[in-house]
């Protein structure tokens, strides 16, 4: 299934879930409201989807709470939960083409990226948390002899997850897998741009044996469904991935309601530092291009600022531009396309506005900068590189969330670190150097949740992912993400001596 015509045929035959999934049932919005799910690569309306509001959120939270209190999932043994989540991982892979297609049609990414990366990634995350469950032990505190004090991890209850559109299936999986593994019930709100894979995933979870009501999905807008979850008095934890602006709203919703725990994975403006002592400049250039152009640049940890030591700057930019040409967008269903469509017309306009503004500010457009049309859609942007970007310009400071790279020269290590850290964000950073001492020194000084050395945007289920400053707090992936979905209970047994 790698031919364009195969994917086109599948796309014609593909059905879409148009309802919320609550208590294991497909549910319409009580108000009858719907929103159009649009394929950004063609402009075609794929389906009208239930636009959930407060009524459906209340219903979904009730369903999650009842399932939690009934213990149908929360009190199952770790091994039983493990078996269900392992079956879900298998079902994700068994439905690999459909899930890949749903994300590609819904938000414009190349279908083969979804097939090669996103779908196996989601299955791997469910498998990894499932496998962890019967290997985790709790603690006994070093108290006096006449005391036994246990420290146990307990599920929180009802977790709400609000996620973005850039990796619809994976962002859902990163929240759901550990939250469910820990025994919680979950209400998931996918982004309004990309509801389909989350809805299909929830049906697969029920097929895998997850009891009805444990996982509920409420498609809809942020200002209605998302806000209702944020303000809900019976949600214990709100796990969010999205923009910094909306992340701040969730802190406010929590303060205005029940002080639910809020965990934020927000935006970024990650710096990639290339030092003159880097021996493999060709690889560094290839990865610098990948770091900004993969997924149309719609990546929170995209390496959107490239800092190059002045002595190799011009040579490096030449290599980079050669690599950038490989990332021309095309039909997302064409297996030869390395980039696809920008998620919608609004985001396309925003990226183009950044490009025009940066040109007006006097930076040099080294390549790209053009809006392109395919199959009747204008939501395509050529890979864009600006050189001579001032560290104080908008492009150097604000998240674009598109295929636009800001290149800046630097002279000294101190200057590079200073510019890299001079950001409101602190999600990720990369550095390239073959000097072991410099690599360690600079890695320590960079303020970021992940520092990749001699690669970009390193990421694995085994390692925590998240940031500091206005990129948020708390970590997805790894065993550390259980910190978000469990709380510590101390039980003190006073013994008679
Ligand atoms: P967004 O913040 O606009 O939306 C994210 C989610 O929040 C969506 O489900 C949306 O419906 C909901 N939402 C929007 N307004 C809301 C409101 N007023 N109240 C409640 N919920 C609301 O972000 P986006 O455009 O979907 O995604 C892009 C952003 O996500 C970028 O800033 C990117 O950096 C960030 N992101 C971060 C990570 C990470 O792990 N740090 C990963 C992926 C994306």
UniProtKB/TrEMBL annotation:
The keyword Nucleotide-binding does not apply. InterPro entries: Ald_DH/histidinol_DH (IPR016161), Ald_DH_C (IPR016163), Ald_DH_CS_CYS (IPR016160), Ald_DH_CS_GLU (IPR029510), Ald_DH_N (IPR016162), Aldehyde_DH_dom (IPR015590). SUPFAM superfamilies: ALDH-like. It comes from the Bacteria. The active site is at residue 265. Keywords: Oxidoreductase. Residues 29-490 form the Aldehyde dehydrogenase domain. Pfam families: Aldedh. Gene3D superfamilies: Aldehyde Dehydrogenase, Chain A, domain 1, Aldehyde Dehydrogenase, Chain A, domain 2. Belongs to the aldehyde dehydrogenase family. PANTHER family: ALDEHYDE DEHYDROGENASE-RELATED. This is Aldehyde dehydrogenase.
